Hints:
- This protein is α+β, with helices and mostly antiparallel strands.
- It folds into four domains: about 5-80, no CATH class; about 90-170, 3-Layer(bab) Sandwich (Phage tail protein beta-alpha-beta fold), CATH 3.55.50; about 185-210 and about 320-340, no CATH class; about 220-315, no CATH class.
- It contains seven helices and 21 strands.
- It has helices at about 25-30, 80-85, 100-110, 135-145, 170-180, 220-225, 305-315; strands at about 5-10, 15, 20-25, 40, 40-45, 50, 55-60, 65, 70-80, 95-100, 115-120, 125-130, 155-160, 165-170, 190, 210-215, 230-235, 240-250, 275-285, 315-320, 335-340.
- The strands form eight sheets. Strands 1, 4, 7, 8 and 9 form a five-stranded antiparallel beta sheet that branches. A three-stranded mixed beta sheet has the order 11-14-13. A three-stranded mixed beta sheet has the order 18-17-19, with no helix packed on it.
- A hairpin with a 4-residue loop joins β8 and β9 (about 70-80).
- The protein is globular, with a radius of gyration of 25 Å.
Amino acid sequence: MITAQATIVDTGDSATDERDNLGTIRDAFPIIGDGTEFITFEIVNESGTLKAKEPMVITGAPITLDQNQRQVLTLPLVSKYTIDTASKPRLSYYGIGTLDEAVKKILKENNLPFLDKNIEKSSTLDKVEGKNETPIDLIFHLSKKTKPITGAPGFFFYETQEGFNFRSIEGLIKQGMEDYKNNSTDRTYTYFNNNRTDPSAEDNYKVMGMPIIKRDQNLLTALKTGVYNVRIQTKNLLTGQFTDNIVNLLDKNSTYLGNKPSIKPNQNETTASNYARTYSYVLTPGSLDEGVSTKITNNPAEYEPQANMRYAMLHSQIVDITIPCNTRLMVKVFLLPTFELW
């Protein structure tokens, strides 16, 4: 969900208290951050104008720094929709169907904004019930078990200025690669070294500081040691059948940020000597169907291990890059950073 942190430099006489006395925003209101206080904003710069469609909620006690002639106020903010739905647990039954249709029903029922183009189609059929979860938590729960039309399972649920989005890892990576090939970038951002002396460069499109690597896992070592080989055990309560398999989770039909993996001889282990984790599931055929059925609907052994691997691989390398405010940017917009060598 949309979160933000607002920093306000207040020199006084910015607000009035109950007795019409002038004071700072922090002292005159006062702000206590109990979820009943709201703030709206508008950002105007060379890239355009971004105005909050709904107020942001102040979710915690403000942090203040008192100086000689000013007060610096920091406010933690979150989307109004998060607060509105937090007290509305769902008990509804959304039927059996594809999970993207269930997500649309949940969003419509709770008046949460979205565009049809931002709810990606899925191939996963399942029964969806509220189970006393909030609407947002319920959709988060569905994300891991949802599989796109092609590729491995794993969706993201997030909010932008276009409303709520339900997009697959597969779809976001494909869109980014297509934008890169078509040179469809919002702008190229450049990092200059400390020797930069050109004052006429476009400061609005420069990387503000040295990129910070927050996480950098060695994927080659992980692959060689079998991190993506897992052991999957299932027990069918109807037939009594027990299965025990070592499975390689890398999917040649999926899209990755780098080159596609190649399946080498003996990479799919047949013994329990080279696997990273064990998943165990109890299967209950017919539990989602009316009457008597032997069908297993949305077998968790077919989506959970691979979805966990996809999320882990996507977050294996994380870099923090700080740029000036650009009101056109949102999740799914492709940027091309360049770095000056020295």
